[in-house]
Amino acid sequence: MGVNMIQNHMELTFDSISQNESFARAVAAAFATQLNPTLAELSDIRTAISEAVTNAIVHGYSNNPAKKVYMSCEIQGNVFEATVIDEGKGMENVSLAMQPFYTTMPGTERSGMGFSVMEAFMDGLVVESTPGRGTKVVMTKRIGSVGDDE
């Protein structure tokens, strides 16, 4: 147990419009700064949040601005955790959706790499989804994991 066991939590609800993707990314990064992350760690968090929020807006809600996206961030010790939830259409097959290049929108600018990006930039990724009910994405990142705790 470190001397400074930070515990903190915040929640944010915003309209399902693309402009709020950068807002959510900025809020998550600002919240994570209390862990004194490197610029690279902050950039990783921003990138992963962007992907999760964009998925909720584009895939979960089909860009319906009347819908809400829910984001919460939590800090436990040196671990940052972000959860992004939509109550949209959900996914039948999460493991298929998480495969690189899989997209439900072929012929568009969508690369099908959203979950792969989240996995690459964060230390943990859990995706739960129910068709017709929505999707919950939980991402974790250990900040300063190389010997900072000792």
List the helices and strands and how they pair.
Layout: E1 7-15, H1 19-32, H2 39-60, E2 68-76, E3 79-86, H3 94-97, H4 114-121, E4 124-130, E5 134-142
Antiparallel strand pairs: 1-2, 2-3, 3-5, 4-5
Helix pairs in contact: 1-2, 2-4
Written overview of the protein:
Helix content is 32%, strand content 28%. A hairpin with a 2-residue loop joins strand 2 and strand 3. With 150 residues, the chain is of the alpha+beta class. A 5-stranded antiparallel beta sheet has the order 1-2-3-5-4, covered by helices on one side. The chain has helices at 19-32, 39-60, 94-97, 114-121; strands at residues 7-15, 68-76, 79-86, 124-130, 134-142. The chain has one domain (7-142): Histidine kinase-like ATPase, C-terminal domain (Heat Shock Protein 90, 2-Layer Sandwich), CATH 3.30.565. The protein is globular. The protein contains 4 helices and 5 strands, in the order E-H-H-E-E-H-H-E-E. Helix 1 packs antiparallel against helix 2 (39-60) and helix 2 (39-60) runs antiparallel to helix 4.
